[in-house]
């Protein structure tokens, strides 16, 4: 089997964003049942100097859609630059990212795995070979923010578990178990 940039990016991002959306579906029910403010809920964080829950979702969507856009040589979807104020807005952001990912054909990501990908980060511009950018920068950042969002939801008391984080790949194998 040949190496496919599409296969190791788009389906992976889709799986995890779908799982994150499910976790937010559970969060919406939790917030409603407990009479909480969604705006305050979205401002939760694990520790004071970390991003809020809203910012974690924002970054996860930016890293997934942005990575695929860069690799495909297309523009990323226009996502709101401000973090989401409520769960519905966060879920809409995830939906927009998923729609974009679904629009990318496998051949759009193929090509030279060493082609340069340049990203501007807080410290300046960085250029990597495409494959290294995807595997060592974009996916690492994406997983960090998805995991941190999951952790904030769990710490808040939302009834989700590891199987919800992993999603269909595990739910299909262990239906009814948790």
Describe what this molecule looks like in 3D:
The chain has a single domain (10-171), classed as dinb family like domain (Four Helix Bundle (Hemerythrin (Met), subunit A)), CATH 1.20.120.450. It has a two-stranded antiparallel ribbon with strand order 1-2. The protein has seven helices and two strands. Helix 3 packs parallel to helix 4 and helix 3 (53-72) runs antiparallel to helix 5. The protein has 178 residues and is mainly α. Strand 1 (116-121) and strand 2 form a beta hairpin.
Structure summarized in a few sentences:
This protein is mostly helical. 57% of the residues lie in helices and 7% in strands.
Distance between the termini: 34 Å
What is the architecture at the second tier of CATH? Up-down Bundle
SSE pattern, N- to C-terminal: HHHHEEHHH
Look at the helices and sheets and give the structural class.
Answer: mainly alpha
Choose one word for the global shape. Answer: globular
């Amino acid at each position: 089997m040949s190496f496919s940039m599409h296969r190791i990016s788009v389906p992976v991002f889709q799986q995890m964003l779908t799982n994150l959306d499910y976790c937010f579906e559970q969060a919406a029910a939790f917030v409603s049942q407990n009479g909480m403010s969604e705006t305050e809920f979205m401002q939760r964080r694990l520790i004071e100097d970390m991003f809020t829950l809203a910012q974690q979702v924002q970054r996860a969507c930016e890293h997934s859609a942005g990575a695929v856009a860069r690799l495909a040589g297309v523009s990323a979807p226009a996502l709101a630059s401000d973090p989401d104020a409520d769960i519905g807005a966060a879920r809409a952001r995830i939906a927009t990212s998923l729609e974009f990912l679904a629009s990318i054909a496998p051949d759009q990501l193929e090509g030279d795995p060493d082609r340069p990908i340049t990203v501007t980060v807080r410290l300046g511009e960085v250029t990597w070979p495409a494959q290294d950018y995807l595997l060592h920068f974009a996916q690492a950042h994406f997983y960090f923010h998805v995991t941190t969002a999951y952790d904030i939801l769990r710490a808040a008391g939302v009834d989700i578990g590891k199987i919800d984080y992993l999603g269909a790949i595990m739910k299909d194998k262990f239906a009814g178990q948790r």
